[in-house]
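hey so i finally got around to running the thing on that chain from the lab meeting. sorry it took forever, my laptop kept dying and i had to restart like 3 times. anyway pasting the input first so we r on the same page abt which one it is
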Amino acid sequence: MDFNKLLGVKESYQASYELEKIIFDRTQREEMFGRFLAERSELSFDWFTEYFQEEQADRKEKKQDFTPDSVVQIASRLLGDTDSNADICAGTGGLTIKRWNENKNARFYCEEFSDRAIPFLLFNLSIRNMNATVWHGDSLSRECFGIYELTAGERFSSIKKVEESQFTKANTVIMNPPYSLGWNPDPSYLEQERFKDFGVLAPKSKADFAFLLDGYSKLEEGGTMALILPHGVLFRGAGEGKIRQKILENNMLDAMIGLPGKIFIATDIPTVILVLKKNRQQKDLLVIDASKGFEKGKNKNILRPEDIDKIVHTYEKRQSVDKYAQVVDFDEILENDFNLNIPRYVDTFEEDEPVDILTTIKDMRKVDQEIKQNEIEFAELLGQLVSTDSLETAKELDEVKRYYEEKIGKKRQHHKEMQMELL
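ok and heres what got predicted. didnt touch it at all, straight out
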């Protein structure tokens, strides 16, 4: 479906502005919803993920990478049922839509910074008739640009701008924040509830842990949070190392799942899903290396249904699986100086087939003889050719040379490879 045509705009940059005009007028909004649903009746996923990523997102400045549906599925299934869900850095609402699809009666809370994304987010929540709060602003500085309350109606949610949010804490939190975004770590933030127990702020150049702690602060007691971050948070040092150590000492981290690279639309960055809980009873950590379970696509890798199921089932069973998952004790994490680099805990090494030395030596001798024989044949043929100035003879010489150079070259390469096997 041509969404630009539906909105009556010629250029994609106009879509967000036009949608904003329509979304706050009830009559226009419901008329547009009707036309939209006549062409797209499936509500279980975000229609705008690829459209917004390709046409509206600002990857360079705002690090906007919208979450592939396969990753959305994993994160939501890890969280399970909920009566309230918070989605920080919600984008156009893909993660919230998946949570709603499995928890229709829950209350939803979304935060989003982008002016362009907000109209699409409100569209997605309202057309699905959700009860929700949308907080438009900077999640890290807490600068607020606007708050919207959506109330379920007969068919679609109404949208009302309000002065204050009624949201307090959520049973589940789901997040895919912008990776390694620069921010302003004001020292006064250390007095805030979300950061005060950690004694240090995320570095200016990488806000990953700032987003993590902000999301965790919105989690109610006994709740669960799943967020997607780059692998760097597992092993980077300095302030990030201190925050990671405190998270582990406070028994906040329940599991981490390493995903394949190249599964996002606009970035090849390898990512990890972190699962955190409040008031955990277990002291161990489940580490899953799912980086090899995918199908190679044309421009990106694809997580298949069987790959998704394996991740979720392994998380639910919480048992070690050879070359795939490991239940790690805190003492082992301590021995690794709180470095969570996945290969330290899950050994996926596959031994090469043993080399039969005698057979390889015989093959090498055979290749040596073939090279010598080819060189002899090459010299004899050159001797048989009569040197003339004719173009035909020159071409014949070139063809013979090319043929034997290629043939001898291949033999020598084979010979070299067999030598390498013996080393």
